[in-house]
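Each lists chain and fold; for instance:
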Amino acid sequence: MSVLCVVLAVAMFSAVVSGCGGVRERTGGKESIGRTWEKTFGPGEAHCVQQMPDNGYVVAGEAFPHQNDHSSWLMKLDAGGNQLWRRTFQLGKYGLLTWVDLTEDGGFVIAGSMEYEIYGGNLPWYSKIDSSGKIVWQKTFQVNDQGGEAQFIQQTADGGYVIAGVAPTKWEGRIWLSRTSSTGDPIWLKTIELNPGRAMAIQTEDGGYAIASRTPGAEAVLVRTDSEGEPLWRRSYAKNAVVESIQQADDNGFILGCSTATDEETVEALLIKTDHKGNAVWKRTLGGESPIFTRCVQQTNDNGYILSGSTRSSEDEWSEAVLLKTDEKGSLLWKRTFGGEGNTHADCVQQAEDGGYILVGSSSVFGPEIETWVVKTDKDGRFTSSVDE
């Protein structure tokens, strides 16, 4: 397996500090970290959010005011959703920033893909960012002289990084897992025979890794590796399912958030809880009259789970963002939808320090363009534009 690492000496990077054109907002509650609010930040969409120790948020996404001027960005918000800074990355027309995570030094690590004409497509791209949003280093690499896309990155216990992504189309039916040093230099890279639609990975408590995806036959699958990326076991759970999210639970088992097609017209959220060996403990489908497309799942501080995604109303053609809360057994406690006359999608959700939830995605409710959408709810998932079900 050959791995060529290319260090980008010249950063394709620009910065905008404080403020963002086209910001719209609605707020509710008290002027504190516990208040609720909803904001848009101009044309684009957000893909990932993390809460920071100062109770603010860091959001990763993309802007597309014009097809030939596609850019990706990283944005820092305070606890009230006010933009503190925004950094823009020129990753090419088909480049994409998909993930952000916090690092031990107070900075960030981000991952996605960058268009690279020399190789006729995209290359996996990842970068270390300091606390003010400035690039510390950025790198890209190719696998067996091919490109691909990084979809997930996380700092490991020793200060290095684990990255998961999609292999080139030439390797149909494969994803890859890479381990790097603290400066981003590849240590090893492994490929796994899984469908390359989505690749999510986490470092486990024992220093190994868990990778969630689906098989070429469209089965939800979880692969567990040792610290060197060598497979230990592999479990399949459901047919016609797409795994969108994975997290290690407090009991060292795993929770998988999926979308599953029960028939040609019905799509439901599927939540799968396993033990630490990957054996299914329970499976829950969370649907209703409208389809639900899952994008993210997180364990909550009451040992239950929160899922975000989108649904399509049975009354019209608009898509709405959806937030689902379950108990520790996966039984639905409540469902909230967000939207209006336009399409709204929630790509990522995190539980905030005050017990509420932060959702990010996109919405066209506020105007003719698709805009970056961020909403902070209370602990019951409520906001003035949400609908209880």
User: Anything to note?
Assistant: The chain has no helices and 32 strands. The radius of gyration is 20 Å. Confidence is low (pLDDT under 50) at residues 1-22, 29-33.
